[in-house]
Structures are given as structure tokens and as C-alpha cells.
Amino acid sequence: MPLATTRRAGLVDQVIEQLRDAVTQGEWPIGQRIPTEPELAGQLGVGRNTVREAVRALAHTGLLEVRQGDGTYVRATSEVSGAIRRLCGSELREVLQVRRILEVEGARLAARSRTEEEVTELRSLLERRNLELRERHWEDFARLDAEFHFAVVQSGHNTLLTEMYRGLTEVITASVAATSNVTPGGEYLPEIGHEGLAEAIADGDADRAASEACGFLDELLARVERDES
Questions:
Q1: What is the pLDDT of residues 101-154, one digit of tens each?
Q2: 95 φ/ψ angles, rounded to the nearest 5 degrees
Q3: 172 with 149: CB under 8 angstroms?
């Protein structure tokens, strides 16, 4: 997405909006250094102070990270995710607790509202996830596992819950990677499957779906708490 010259009124807000769009639409992926302050000022047709203020605002929300002497980097694809990253840091336990709050009700709603097409998609994602797990492709496994959980929440057809969950995509994927069935020492842990969750949703059993979602997240939390002790 090429940056456009801004209008005179509300320059800072306009620059914030354009920089936010460049991040959320994937123009600048996570971990990439964005153009320098003079380059952005030239592209946008504004002063460097305006760019500096806009970058500072987005850094405050967690979307960008300013590294003194190095540049400014993309830290998250949404301000909600950026805020969670900033507040939680490496607190995996807190991320899992938030996931439990959202995913248990998301599973319950999915069992009540899912379509047949959504059930088919859930099963397809689960099959692909399991394949990557068997092949020990951990990055692809984490991505597909997170996509499966998002698809569950989305199947509940609650727009606000779906958008809240979408905003946590990066930390959810990171939590999947951090709790995958391989330890830093190379020890393989028992795999936590999601077939029961998918089938409960397919059967329209809301209580069983909620119990399945709560069960695997409680198990992950127990693992984390054991590691902390």
C-alpha cells in the first residue's frame, strides 16, 4: 500500500492512520524496520515532528517499537495484541488464562451456532494441524493450531468476541508454540488433541464443547505452573 500525501488538517491523526494501515494490511510485517523518519516525512508530505509524534503514539499502543540508535520496528499487527504483548511480556500463564475466558464461551457458542460448512473447515484445519505435528514442523503447527481456535470462536457468530480474539492472534500463536509438546531439552510431552472439541461442536453439544475447551487449557496451565514451581 503506497503512502499518500496527507491533507493539512489533523496531520498527526492522518499519519497515525496511514502507518497503522501499513502495519495491519501487511505492508510492514512483524519484526521489520519501517522507513526512517526523514523517508516517512518525504513520502507523507509532512514535517519530521509530525512523523515523530505519530510514531510515538503507535509505540505507546504497542504496535511499533522504537529502538534508540537502530530504528523503529513493527511489534504487533493490532493495537490490542500490542497492548497484551506489552502488559504480559513472557507471562505465558496470563495469556492462557485469557484464552480460557474467551475460548470456553467461544466453544459453547460455536456448538450452538456453527454451520455445516464451518464444521467441515474445523475438521480440515484439525487434520492439517495434526499432520504438521506428526512431521514436527513446529512453526506451521502453531499457526494452524491458532487458526483452528480462531475458527472455533468465529463459528459462534458473535462479532465482538471474534474481533477481540482476532486482536490476540500473535500472542495466541506464541502461546501455542510455547506449549507445544516438545520441551527445550528435547523431551516430548503427551499431545493435547482437539478431536473431542471438534466433535462436540459438530454434535451441537454446547456443554461438552465448553468442557473440552476448558479441559485442554487447564492442562496447559498446569504444565506452565509446574514449570514455574
A1: 999 999 999 999 999 999 999 999 999 999 988 888 877 888 899 999 999 999
A2: -60, -45
A3: yes
Entry pTM: 0.64
* HSE of 210, CA atoms in CB hemisphere, 13 A: 12
92 close to 179: Cβ distance less than 8 angstroms: yes
Query: Which residue's C-alpha cell is 503507535?
Result: 58
Mean pLDDT, residues 34-42 taken together: 94
Nearest to 37 by CA among 76, 79, 1, 72: 72
Question: What is the CATH code of the structural domain delimited by 9-77?
Answer: 1.10.10.10
Task: Work out the average pLDDT over 81-102.
Answer: 73
Average pLDDT value for residue range 169-189: 65
Dihedral angle of Cα 168, 174, 175, 177, to the nearest 10 degrees: 150
- Regarding the domain delimited by 81-228, which CATH topology (the fold level of the hierarchy) does it fall under? Four Helix Bundle (Hemerythrin (Met), subunit A) (1.20.120)
Buried b (16+ CB within 10 A) or exposed e, 24-42: eeebbeeeeebbebeebbe
Domain boundaries, the chain: 9-77, 81-228
